[in-house]
Design a protein that fits this description.
Layout lengths: L1 E10 L5 H10 L4 E5 L6 H6 L1 H19 L15 H25 L3 E4 L1 E6 L2 E5 L4 E10 L3 E3 L12 E2 L1 H4 L8 E5 L3 H12 L3 E5 L11 H13 L3 E3 L2 E9 L2 E8 L2 E7 L1 E4 L3 E3 L6 H4 L22 E3 L10 H15 L13 E3 L4 E6 L2 H7 L3 E7 L4 H6 L5 E7 L5 E8 L2 H13 L4 H5 L10 H9 L8
Parallel strand pairs: 1-2, 1-6, 2-3, 6-17, 8-15, 9-10, 9-15, 10-11
Antiparallel strand pairs: 4-5, 5-6, 7-16, 12-13, 13-14, 18-19, 19-22, 20-21, 21-22
Helix pairs in contact: 1-9, 3-4, 3-6
């Protein structure tokens, strides 16, 4: 069955693909978007960003009710966990948002094609599903996202050794959870289950958690998580798992010694890899690097003319908002506009509590690049709103070029850091100086005043410290 001709055929309906499809339609293109899953939205909306944040918010409220309401003078009776209701709420949030994408497709007259795509030739995509059909497109955009990276010796079985996909849907709180990997996914899901009463142990191969983010704040976050009851074991590697009497026995090597950890569940969260299997990339000549990431030029075009790629399928941080920005920039350039992505202004967030967010360069980045910097910090302990909220952990760090005062990076560990980092991203996008940020009035009392004070501190002018 023929599938018709389009100006753009998008493969994948995640944050890169569906956003690109909508923007292309707004620019007057006839667009089809192929998605192998029943619901639109990709990993982020279905089994990633959105459901994990729903559980993080629910579990944090549960923890506050048990541990912190009394500090505010709020007396409650026995606090009980209703995990099925929590999971149903999570699913409802996901359903609402994936349904919203479908509505946007309809509004923008985008053809949604259900099935699995294979690029048969430049300009031709074969879709396998209930019936096979062929779509012809002047251009093809690959936005197929990523999948959890397996770890040799700890193969996923979906029940005992799980990926983040299954860790979002446990039907009961495990007594003991072993998390392999201390990046954002491992820390966030470890936090969810620890708040709900699970004993959580995190094993990390490197000598620090969140290895791509600011070292000083990473270390502070590790201390905070330990105070919350999470055990973190660094410079260690999980080698093998054995299932015995419904438990998982994991061999862990650390400092030349080998121990055995026993857990009810093991979450392997060592990263993600591009999902490009079955696309037929080698057959049509689309080049990829040694890690399987599709190589593209500054217009997001692959080695084959007319075939483009964005998001987790190409090099760069695997972030939903990065994929969306690339999708928009890609189709705008196809349309003859000046779409661009400023990678220095793409924030990263770890949604633990306190939250950890950063944008731009770290101290380590600047040191490696030989850039002389001045740094200002300000603790939330000295912020009036944070004290009123009883949220005193963490600090804000502003890094500026020592010669020009231009802001190079901002890093925040503290309450609502995920919201506060947007101000810093705007500052970097517009090449603001630390003085620009310091002289911008901030409402009082608010958490973002800590950003202003850190900017003031770059030149030694912090008022409240």
């Amino acid at each position: 069955m023929a599938g018709g001709r389009y100006d753009l055929v998008v493969i994948g309906a995640g944050p890169g693909g569906y956003v690109a499809a909508i923007r292309a339609a707004q620019l007057g293109m006839k667009v089809a978007c192929i998605e192998k899953e029943e619901a639109l939205g990709g990993t982020c909306l279905r089994i990633g960003c959105i459901p994990s944040k729903a559980l993080l918010d629910s579990s944090e409220l549960y923890r506050q009710a048990r541990e912190h309401f009394a500090v505010h003078g709020i007396r409650v009776g026995e606090v009980a966990l209703d995990l099925p209701t929590m999971m149903r709420r999570k699913d409802k949030v996901v359903k609402g948002l994936t349904g919203g994408v479908a509505a946007l497709f309809k509004k923008n007259k985008i053809t949604h094609v259900a099935g699995t795509a294979r690029i048969a030739a430049p300009g031709k995509v074969v879709v396998s599903g209930r019936e096979e059909r062929t779509l012809e497109g002047e251009r093809i955009l690959i936005a197929t996202g990523s999948e959890p990276t397996p770890l040799r010796g700890l193969d996923f079985d979906g029940r005992h050794v799980v990926s983040s996909d299954q860790a979002l849907s446990f039907d009961e709180v495990p007594a003991r959870l072993l998390v392999v990997g201390a990046g954002a996914i491992g820390l966030e899901l470890g936090s969810v289950w620890a708040r709900l009463g699970c004993e959580v142990r995190i094993v990390e191969f490197l000598d620090r958690i969140t290895p791509t983010m600011d070292r000083e704040l990473s270390d502070l976050l590790a201390k905070t998580l330990k105070r919350q009851g999470i055990t973190i074991q660094l410079s260690s590697s999980a080698k093998a798992a054995t299932i015995l009497d419904g438990k998982v026995e994991v061999t862990v090597e650390s400092g030349g010694k080998t121990t055995t950890e026993i857990a009810d569940k093991v979450l392997v969260a060592v990263g993600r890899r591009p999902y490009t299997a079955g696309l037929g990339l080698e057959e049509v000549g689309v080049a990829a690097d040694e890690r399987g990431r599709i190589t593209v030029n500054d217009r997001f075009e692959t080695s084959v003319a007319g075939i483009y790629a964005v998001g987790d399928a190409i090099p760069g941080p695997m972030l939903a908002h990065k994929a969306s920005e690339e999708g928009v920039a890609c189709v705008e350039r196809i349309a003859g506009q000046a779409g661009h992505v400023n990678y220095d202004a793409i924030p990263s967030v770890v949604y633990t509590w306190p939250e950890f967010a950063g944008v731009g360069k770290t101290d380590q980045d600047c040191e490696q690049a030989g850039i002389e910097v001045r740094t200002g910090t300000f603790p939330f302990l000295a912020n009036g709103r944070a004290r009123a909220m009883e949220e005193k952990d963490g600090l804000v760090k502003v890094i500026a070029d020592a010669r020009t005062d231009r802001i190079l990076g901002v890093h925040i560990l503290g309450p609502r850091a995920s919201d506060m980092i947007a101000e810093a991203a705007v500052a970097i996008e517009f090449a603001a100086s630390a003085e620009d940020l310091a002289r911008t009035p901030h409402a009082h009392p608010t958490l973002p005043e800590a950003v202003k004070e850190a900017a003031l501190a770059v030149s030694g002018g912090a008022i409240h410290r």
